[in-house]
Amino acid sequence: MSVSVEKVEKNVVALEVTVESEKFVQAVNQAAKTLAKKVNVPGFRKGKAPRKMVELHVGKEALYDEALDHLIGPAYAEAVIESGIDPIDRPSVDLVQIEEGKDLIFKAKVSVKPDVELGEYLGLHIEQDAASVTDDQVLEELKNKQQQHARLLTLEEGKVENEDTVTIDFEGFIDEVAFPGGKAENYEIIIGSGTFIPGFEEGLLGAEIGQQLNVNVTFPVEYHSEELAGKEAVFTTDIKKIQRKEFSVLDDEFAKDVSEFETLDELKTDLRNKLLQHGEMKAKENHLKAVISKVVDNASVEIPEVMFTERIKVLVEDLKRNLAQQGMTIEQYYQYTNSTEEVMLERLRPQAVESVKSDLVLEAIAKTEGIQVTEDEVDEEIQKLAERHKQDAKLLKQSLMARGDLEFYKKSLISEKTVTFLVEQNS
Q1: How far apart are the first and last CA of the chain?
Q2: What is the CATH number of the domain that holds 15?
Q3: Does residue 404 sit in the same domain as residue 302?
Q4: Do both 223 and 278 map to the same domain?
Q5: For the segment 328-382, what is each residue's pLDDT rounded down to a tens digit?
Q6: Domain for residue 124, yes or no?
Q7: What is the DSSP letter of 223?
Q8: Closest among 245, 170, 155 to 208, alpha carbons compared
Q9: If 0-12 CB within 10 Å is exposed, 13-18 middle and 19+ buried, where does residue 108 land?
Q10: What interhelical angle do 341-369 and 264-298 show, nearest 10?
Q11: Do residues 39 and 57 lie in contact, with contact meaning Cβ atoms separated by under 8 Å?
Q12: Are 34 and 51 in contact (CB under 8 A)?
């Protein structure tokens, strides 16, 4: 087999592949045997008809089509390896010559990974911000603990205040007509949580236990129910119960109740250390992003549309998996966010553009710098992965190989190694 490469346009090449006539004849003969088992040729048992009779029965075109189905795929794959191109989508194939006794010739036109023109990526001197913790941040953490361990007291009398938990009965009306889904009994709502229609929670402020009142609201224009969107409504509401949080005093007793520490100062020190640790991790993460962003911005690459399209598909599948874990379908998500598939795809496009360009630039730098991973390094990372998921490392590696994901995993490790290299070289 021989291959020639022709650049058709930017990031598109055509491979002209020549398959020896002997291989083509073998493929046609095998196709005849395969078709003989599928069709009924008069005068012959299935699978026993000679090639000429099969050809007369199904036609030469059908015979050639069967042969090409089994011949072109492997020949194209071999041609890709031999030519050294890096395809990014399926090829379009055109036959140039197909005749027994002659070489089979076909052209495969395909988009390939674009060339990356690297800019400056070494010695950029991007400094990492120092992490710090203020007294106000520590106090905020203490207040969060107060909230978590607050007691909810039921009031005998009183008026609704912000952050109260209020139990209500309500029924909604539009033009004095009750609408479906607008009625509930013993419904708990936290004032100020923003979980109800805008204006409803505010309308309950100052109401007393046992009071009935009308709350006027306007449904948002982008409300998920088209029948209610933008409509003015009145909710007849009964205040049945008011509950209010009681907070513990921030003292040593509070520290003992909510932690393993004996004093409030010890608890503060622990919170400060944890905030500092989190801050350092965040600073490191932001520094890494800043380095990669600068390196990617300095590079130039013209990315084919198909790469964006494929990356968006991956992002959509990731979203579907995340939604499924929350018990939601993509259709429900569209309804809840008042969106559509077209809107979401357009929203994901900038993320796909950034992601694809970053991958291409990191790959180009790895190639330029000769960054690779050894088999030992791969096995070591698989071992860590297996331990995290409580799996057998050997079986995990076999599973990656069986799914064809091992090479992808190696590429991700090279990418991580390249990022580490860039951070070290640009700090």
Answers
A1: 51
A2: 3.30.70.1050
A3: yes
A4: no
A5: 899 888 887 778 888 888 899 999 999 999 999 999 999 999 999 999 999 999 9
A6: no
A7: -
A8: 155
A9: buried
A10: 80
A11: yes
A12: no
